[in-house]
Amino acid sequence: MSPSIRDIQEKKTRSEKIAVLTAYDLTSAKICDEAGIDIALVGDSAGMVVMGYPNTISVTMEEMLVFCRSVVNGSKNSLIVADMPFGSYQFDPKLAVANAIKFIKLGCHAVKIEGGLEVLKLIREMTNFGIPVMGHIGLKPQTTVLWQGYKVQGKTFDSAKALYNQAIEIEKAGAFSLVLELVTKEVSSEISRSLTIPTIGIGSGSGCDGQVLVYHDLLGLFDNFKPKFVKRYLESFSLNLEAVKKYKSEINSGIFPGEEHSFSMSTEESIKFTNYISTLRNYNITNRNEKQKEQIRHA
Ligand code: KIV
């Protein structure tokens, strides 16, 4: 059974770390589930790692709903958090709540929205309607990137103070947890100590209450992208590539499929089939000879 929001929060009280990983489809959801991952985050990073968009801005509600549906289908034991895509919650609070409800109706347990003080009202509104919200500050890929690119946050006193205050207000607004992305370890540790809700860090050091990584980064499903904060536990891209190359070469050389991959008829049915084919061939030969004779007669 998937944990409740309270179960996740109690982990912080017991000083137990929370393991979060993104999932986008049935297989990644099943792997998260079997590995005992606490939260499967259907991140809008799907826009980049699944759809191939250059950033997370382009991914749509419709696409996120498809990813969420397959994660819900593959997951039994993780809490599923749906990342609300850019444009689905920014300009109309009613639309934002309606969109959040779409994820909850699919079977997700909570939604995540990026933003600081500008989203407090929305967090209050959603939690009032009973929708659990995960906040997300620090580097906010939907907007920070437009202004600064992918830059570490909280390096100066002003930036640290702003992040700290945002975190406090987000907890007060009712968020059940908070993602801290690319935040200096001093700031993320202080925020984690000061909040009662769990913080989930990505590129924000070990002082957070939990950690999240993108599934494709953890498994090394890219050959060309390796940010400093990612630990690769496998080199899946090259392993997959090797396997697919071997498959192609075995088709070309006739090694695949082997006898063990083929299916047979019973001897009795096979004899009947062979006899049928040879009768058919004899009939065709006779028929062709008759036609040729006819043509010669009429020539
Ligand atoms: O979309 C995502 O994958 C995320 C996490 C990295 C926090 O927002």
Characterize the structure shown:
The protein has 299 residues and is of the alpha/beta class. The protein has 2 domains: 5-237, Alpha-Beta Barrel (TIM Barrel); 260-297. Helices cover 49% and strands 12% of the residues. It has helices at residues 5-13, 26-35, 46-49, 61-74, 93-106, 120-128, 144-148, 157-173, 185-194, 215-218, 236-253, 267-298; strands at 18-22, 39-42, 79-83, 110-112, 133-138, 177-181, 199-202, 210-213. α4 packs parallel to α5 (93-106). The longest helix is centred in the last third of the chain and has 32 residues, at 267-298. The model has no long low-confidence stretch (mean pLDDT 96). It binds 3-methyl-2-oxobutanoic acid.
List the helices and strands and how they pair.
Layout: H1 5-13, E1 18-22, H2 26-35, E2 39-42, H3 46-49, H4 61-74, E3 79-83, H5 93-106, E4 110-112, H6 120-128, E5 133-138, H7 144-148, H8 157-173, E6 177-181, H9 185-194, E7 199-202, E8 210-213, H10 215-218, H11 236-253, H12 267-298
